[in-house]
DNA sequence: AGATAATCGAGACGGTACGTCGCGTCTTTTC
DNA sequence: GAAAAGACGCGACGTACCGTCTCGATTATCT
């Protein structure tokens, strides 16, 4: 029976492993992280990690979900769409600009590139909520009906990803604002809220 | 530890190593690729690889430059900016959608993510020419002066990258066209050519 | 940690565990045998094994006693000591030569070698009866008083063990007879019975 | 190519590994010995051990050969066969009686029991020389032609092994002498040398 | 007969050693 | 002196068992 029973899972271990993972990520970074070190730090056996996760990347992913999962992702609706977008775009840009967060995200993206399942997890559990939140705000903002909102949302985040990934330019607040202006124009800036 | 003398370098080995690298990349993918396997396949010694390259990623990068670094990247200028953009965006989307070509891009992106200096190489030697070509076309197309062309170019390629990376939606011709429409609106579609 | 109550012991489990042990010994050999496998095969929990036995070796020992501990070991006394010895030595040699029976002996010997207290059990409960039977026959056979019978008995079985253990020669009927002849000479073959 | 080239073997590593093995055997005993510990102590990689030996038992065996291999095994020939045998039998008995040596020999015998190849090595490289030496001395001692010398030699060592293995009695000097007396009677003690 | 308590099957757990894999260096021999 | 070949020290990997533990579900005695 190579399929363990989730009902009998030890919650204390699970927590200890995720906590240890986050701690080690902060201390040493993703590349230096090893499954053995996580287990040792968590006071767990390696087998316990391999029983419930696929390996290092899966644990890290879970640890990050765990961190992020708290918190409301809904965007504010002040009535001023441009201002609201500026807020979220500036925040996103800042997050990508932070080298600490960036390192782990980068590593996870590598996994994403080579593991289809992983890509799905990242997309659905980490990204989708945020994308949907922006999508909702756009809809509420009176964007013309002929604009494909899915494409529109990616028009916002795509360039940031691209710039971060390929380091084609600085990730500054000024950049964020310019981007918002272009996006507003794209979706018809007569929209007001 | 004396720095090796490039003049005495064996061209035959160099070629064999790069060819082997590409072949193995196709067959097994980047993650499974090992320096030992490249050496064995190339009929080379591992030391020869470490003498002339920094390691796996440097060889891969070189092998990919070697493949790609041909061809003219200038965009056509038919006078119809929207039509010209459609051409290039459709082509790009198709390239990302093709699993075969996608594999190479994937490998490159992995490199980019893992190594700062590699990122620079990829950006400057591979990406920049294409981005600049589009930028030139935009400038020639009469885009208003207040539009930051660097941001504009990324407004085109960012979403494609994003969608490809995170599989948030299909990479179809229809998608390409919608994207172009949004971008045209963003940069002020009164522009004509 | 309360000492378990033997009165409440489940006989069905005990049997199933011993049976499973013997079956697995036959199928895979002692070295490959694991407590987990015994438990699984017996439909028992591992704890049940550790509750009643000290571990793998204790279970194996018990399982083997269980198999062997039947039958009369007394030697015949036809009046012809040489003939009687031939009988028992030929039988012993045949037993060691038989790969099937040999497997069990092998397992037992492994136990004996690994654990002091096990060695005592094997010696006293399994071996001693047979050695004593031969010793009795020798005494009745009129062996001179100055011959140490314990040493004499081992003069018979020692060489067989040695040859079996180290494969220094064939275990044939002819060998058995030669051995008996030497032993008879050693203990003074004027003895008649 | 899973077959390493012995010509390229590093003698320094070989020595360090065998030395470390013997040192650890002395310090901790066979059961507590691990391949990882040997490698660490020898300043070698585990792979180097697995490359040249089959595992722990093979290394230990080799380490013991290495210790024993020095030294002449020929028996003295004083003209008095009984006296000469007493010497060698007393020495053998003393060796088996020593708990330190005994532990390792015991462990190796376990391996011998389950590994045919190993049994051959032990027999041919460790035992045979000694057995042959005794055999030669017997032949020179004028043992009657009708005595099978192979059987005779095992008549000496078999009982010792048996007693050691199964702990059926003490391994003392007195025992050694009694054994020699019986053996001398068996092979016809009119023999003089 | 119902309450009480220990045993039972099952298997997750912390741990240790395993044997393998790949890295980047070092050594030997050949060209 | 570069190159082919591959052994080497190292260290992480993912697996196998160990012996302990926790969890209901079953007995099996004792009120």
From TrEMBL, chains A, B, C, D:
Pfam families: TetR_C_11, TetR_N. Residues 34-53 bind DNA. It comes from the Bacteria. Signal peptide: none annotated. The keyword Transcription regulation applies. Residues 11-71 form the HTH tetR-type domain. Gene3D superfamilies: Homeodomain-like, Tetracycline Repressor, domain 2. Keywords: DNA-binding, Transcription, Transcription regulation. This is AcrR family transcriptional regulator. The lineage of its organism: Bacteria, Bacillati, Actinomycetota, Actinomycetes, Micromonosporales.
């Amino acid at each position: 029976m190579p399929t363990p029973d989730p009902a009998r899972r030890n919650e204390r271990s699970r927590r200890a492993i995720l906590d240890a993972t986050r701690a080690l990520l902060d201390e040493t970074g993703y590349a230096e992280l090893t499954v053995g070190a996580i287990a040792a730090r968590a006071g767990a056996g390696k087998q316990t990690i391999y029983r419930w996760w696929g390996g290092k990347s899966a644990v890290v992913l879970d640890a990050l979900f765990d961190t992020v999962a708290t918190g409301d992702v809904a965007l504010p609706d002040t009535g001023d769409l441009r201002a609201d977008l500026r807020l979220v775009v500036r925040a996103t840009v800042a997050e990508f600009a932070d080298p600490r967060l960036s390192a782990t995200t980068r590593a996870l993206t590598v996994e994403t590139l080579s593991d289809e399942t992983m890509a799905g997890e990242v997309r659905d559990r980490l990204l989708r909520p945020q994308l949907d939140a922006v999508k909702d705000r756009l809809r509420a903002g009176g964007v013309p009906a002929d604009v494909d909102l899915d494409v529109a949302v990616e028009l916002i985040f795509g360039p940031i990803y691209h710039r971060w990934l390929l380091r084609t330019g600085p990730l500054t607040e000024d950049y964020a604002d310019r981007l918002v202006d272009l996006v507003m124009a794209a979706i018809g800036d007569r929209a007001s809220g």
